[in-house]
Design a protein that fits this description.
heterodimer, A: alpha+beta, 20 helices, globular, B: alpha/beta, 7-stranded mixed beta sheet, 6-stranded mixed beta sheet, 7 helices, 19 strands, 21% helix
């Protein structure tokens, strides 16, 4: 555990990607099996100890430290694992030897709800501060130390000098501590065969178009649908739905899974039937409707009937065991069109191509798309193979221009992670009527991004100097600062007193020049609602 | 419930500082006043523009250097009581924070009030140690008043610094350290650890280091970064103000390892936010244990808590059945002096 703890600490204080890769690769080469496999699983978010919940860790510390002092500390640090690692009292007597990563994993895996507390406490008693931090991060499954799964895999490829694509390919078929993977990479075994397993393949992703102008002879255009991107896999008699991060979400969408029994791998957008996006012709409800179905372990028949899910297909990666990923997009599209005609039209359709004479005509269509609540346009190079990640020049997303409104800062809360101890989560409001006519501010949204580090420091200091009230971690501020907020859409909401909710709000400008009384009214936002109802 | 404290009428806590209304004298006021008693030279305690500043000689030197304006007032020696009017006596007592730093003991008709200013309980080769002084009311700082703040021994942090230097002969080590106090303490501790090579300074550190030398704190061989070639700075230790880490100025240095000497470095994300690779937990303030131990040791009838995380210390006092209240002083939010 000491070596893994040192790795995490070093990674946290290292900024450059190359230095992080070098630290990871050194660890993966030097650490023993199966410790390094478990460490890799921890770094890529592949460990899960169902009996070890964050609540247990909070209970443990509150048995040892005054609860008020703990929560004030937690509020300042912005991270429970780090706070607990700093506050944990060293047990009396000589320190027993620290556990190995695999010993810790074995103990945590074997823990039940009844034994989890003593197991975690016993481990913490055997570790120093950095070790406690590493253990708690591992145990709660959320490292958040600036190392993505992709970076960890890249480091693995670098450590053993094997192709990254091969690592990505076999990755999702293997389970921690990845004995087969290390055996193959260190040359003692053949590459694992995964063709007959229903496993996730990494997605091809798009870059923002920014200001580029493309020739539609080279690029095909599709609408950008606002659902969740999924991969549909049928192999070895089993069907799986994976989200963008490779998470298995089959359980939430049994209706879709049942409808797919064609051996292959497809890429598409999971949506709910409706008429919000693109009107009747678009045939898809808003993202809100889809949200009703997300994250459920059991989905009732009435839920399936009320929010019927379907997949709008974008691409095909495998068809009856044949790997199509090296084909150009045009070739894959032909195969996809043939394939979709064999599928249940209730559960599957194909993402239509946009007919536009040239790029200017496409720009006009995109501009008009806001009227029908479509999120934007995708552009795909006609000769692009299906490649994992965001390969430059292949796929672009061209989102519609954001909407903006001038709002007044009302409340602020400290952020967590990178922004811990800065006031970085802002609740802002708009007027119910002009201030002079007795209007008041009602919250219309919350944002925690869009500003630079320098602006964050300024905002933080504004909050500290203009606090009028404190509610636990939340500070109410003097209602004097206007924030220009950008957002993608406005939806009706019954959860907010203002009756509206913004989608993807972020701070676009700090309007120190503007008096609060001149901020927008809620009616202005209401007029931006396109689809009247959530579904 | 504790009975409501009896607050002497001759002292008042205002937002601008501690006030003695009968004679209109202030302690560490945040706006210009006619008569100020100043605990130490940090900007959140020693503002410019006062008519008279009564402080230790070192603190008055520091104020003169920073504000470049002559100020009336008097140099005071430690532990020598002086009458300031209305039967009030003030005595400056070492606080162990930085050169010249003092607690101020105010006495009137048998009532004793200690204003600690900023202080620490660890030894520091650049200033006199904190002198515990019995009192009825303790007005204490609370910069690091959360139980997560426990400062490690400075020898450990200096050891980590020297280890990083040995492990990276091709890189320079750039330490962000507050120009008054922290910088000189880090240098003096490096000397105590046996490091006798030239330590390189950012231009903004020079005058204060010279002032320390004039006041008898020897810092060993120092030189300006601008006088060295990039090549000559490989493997060298450089001290700069925290704001110069990651600045255009730092680009001239050979692949610097950003270090920062501050009590805030105890929290990982604090270091990450400032792009610090080598966080050194070195503070000129009390940590949590020292704050609480000081309150227990002095056992005042009442504790007043100034800047910092007063909520936690107030709560601790309540848990220990001790009377306490928080003062709402302006301009005392956390900063780089930590």
């Amino acid at each position: 555990m000491d070596r893994f703890a040192r790795l995490l600490t070093d990674l946290i204080y290292t900024r450059s990607r190359n230095s992080k890769l070098a630290l990871l690769a050194d660890y993966l080469r030097a650490a023993p099996d199966p410790d390094r496999g478990w460490a890799l699983a921890g770094l890529t978010g592949a460990v899960n100890f169902p009996s070890v919940k964050a609540g247990i860790i909070r209970d443990l510390i509150k048995e040892r430290v005054d609860p008020v002092l703990f929560s004030l500390s937690r509020d300042f640090v912005g991270d429970t694992a780090e706070t607990v690692s700093l506050l944990w009292p060293a047990p009396p007597g000589p320190v027993p030897p620290s556990p190995t990563v695999s010993e810790a994993v074995d103990l945590l895996s074997a823990a039940t709800r009844a034994t989890a507390k003593p197991v975690v406490a016993g481990l913490l008693d055997r570790l120093d501060e950095d070790g406690r931090f590493a253990l708690l991060k591992l145990a709660t499954g959320a490292l958040r130390i600036g190392v993505s799964a992709r970076l960890a895999k890249t480091a693995f490829a670098q450590a053993f000098d094997v192709p990254l694509d091969d690592v990505e390919e076999v990755w999702h078929a293997l389970r921690p501590p990845y004995a087969e993977l290390f055996a193959w990479a260190s040359g003692t075994a053949a590459k694992p065969d995964i063709t007959s397993r229903p496993v996730f393949r990494p997605f091809m992703l798009a870059n923002p178009l920014e200001d580029a102008v493309l020739d539609l002879a080279d690029y095909a255009a599709e609408w950008k649908w606002d659902g969740i991107r999924i991969q549909l896999v049928h192999a070895g008699g089993e069907t799986r739905l994976f989200s963008r991060g490779g998470e298995d979400i089959t359980g939430s969408f049994p209706d879709v899974a049942r409808a797919f029994a064609h051996e292959g791998v497809l890429d598409g957008e999971l949506l709910v039937r409706g008429a919000a996006q693109g009107g009747e012709a678009g045939g898809a409800a808003s993202f809100n409707a889809l949200q009703q179905r997300l994250g459920r372990k059991v989905v009732s028949a009435s839920m399936q009937a009320e929010y019927p899910a379907f997949v709008r297909l974008y691409d095909v990666l495998f068809d009856r065991g044949e790997d199509l990923r090296r084909l150009p997009w045009t070739g894959r599209r032909v195969r996809l069109e043939a394939l979709v005609s064999q599928l249940d039209p209730g559960a599957f359709d194909i993402s239509a191509l946009i007919e536009a004479g040239d790029f200017d005509a496409l720009a006009d269509l995109r501009a008009a798309a806001r009227e029908t609540d479509i999120e934007g346009v995708m552009l795909k190079r006609r000769d692009s193979p299906y490649e994992a990640g965001r390969k430059a020049g292949f796929w672009y997303k061209w989102k519609r221009e954001p909407l903006t409104a001038d709002c007044v800062m009302m409340y602020a809360q400290r952020g967590s992670g990178k922004r811990s101890s800065f006031y970085s989560d802002f609740t802002f409001g708009c007027w119910t009527a002009p201030e002079a006519e007795g209007g008041v501010l009602l919250p219309v949204g919350k944002a925690y991004s869009g500003f630079s580090d320098e602006e964050l420091r300024w905002l933080d200091s504004f909050v500290r100097k203009h606090t009028t009230n404190r509610f636990g971690p939340v500070r109410e501020v003097e209602k004097s600062l206007v924030l220009e907020v950008a957002f993608d859409a406005v939806n009706v909401s019954t959860r907010h007193k203002s009756g509206i909710a913004m989608r993807f709000p972020r701070i676009s400008r700090i309007r120190r020049d503007k008096p609060a009384g001149e901020a927008d009214e809620i009616d202005t936002l209401r007029r931006m609602i396109v689809s009247g109802l959530a579904s | 419930m504790l009975s409501s404290p009896k607050t002497p009428r001759w002292i008042k806590a205002e937002r601008e500082g501690i006030h003695l209304p009968a004679i209109d004298w202030w302690i560490d006021p945040s706006r210009p006043v006619a008569h100020a008693l100043v605990t130490h030279g940090h900007a959140d305690h020693a503002r410019g523009g006062h008519g008279e500043v009564w402080a230790t000689g070192a603190t008055r030197d520091i104020i003169a250097l920073r504000y470049e304006t002559p100020t009336g007032g008097r140099d005071l020696a430690y532990n020598e009581p002086i009458e300031i009017g209305d039967s009030i006596t003030a005595t400056f007592v070492p606080a162990g924070h930085v050169l010249g730093s003092a607690q101020i003991l105010l006495e009137r008709e048998g009532e004793r009030i200690i204003i600690t200013g900023d202080y620490k309980r660890r030894p520091d080769p650049t200033c006199l140690p904190f002198q515990p002084t019995p009192c009825d009311i303790l007005i204490t700082e609370a910069t690091f008043a959360l139980p997560i703040f426990t400062h490690p021994p400075i020898e450990r942090e200096i050891g980590r610094l020297l280890d990083a230097r040995s492990a990276n002969p091709d890189r320079s080590i750039l330490i962000g350290a507050y120009a008054l106090g922290k910088a000189q303490r880090v240098i003096a501790e490096l000397r105590r650890a046996g490091y006798h090579e030239t330590i390189w300074l950012h231009g903004a550190m020079v005058a204060m280091c010279e002032l320390y030398e004039r006041r008898g704190v020897s810092l060993g061989p120092l030189a300006l970064v601008s006088e060295a070639s990039r090549e000559a700075l490989k493997g060298q230790i450089i001290v700069c103000p925290p704001s110069s880490l990651n600045s255009a100025w730092a680009r001239r240095l050979p692949d610097p390892i950003n270090a920062m000497a501050s009590g805030w470095m105890r929290v990982r994300q604090r270091a990450v936010q400032r792009n610090v690779e080598l966080p050194l937990i070195i503070s000129d303030h009390c940590d949590w244990n020292e704050l609480t131990q000081t309150i227990l040791e002095l056992s005042p009838e009442e504790t007043w808590i100034t800047h910092g995380r007063e909520d936690a210390l107030l709560h601790w006092c309540a848990l220990h059945q001790m009377r306490a209240r928080a003062l709402d002083l302006v301009g005392r939010e956390e900063d780089d002096t930590g």
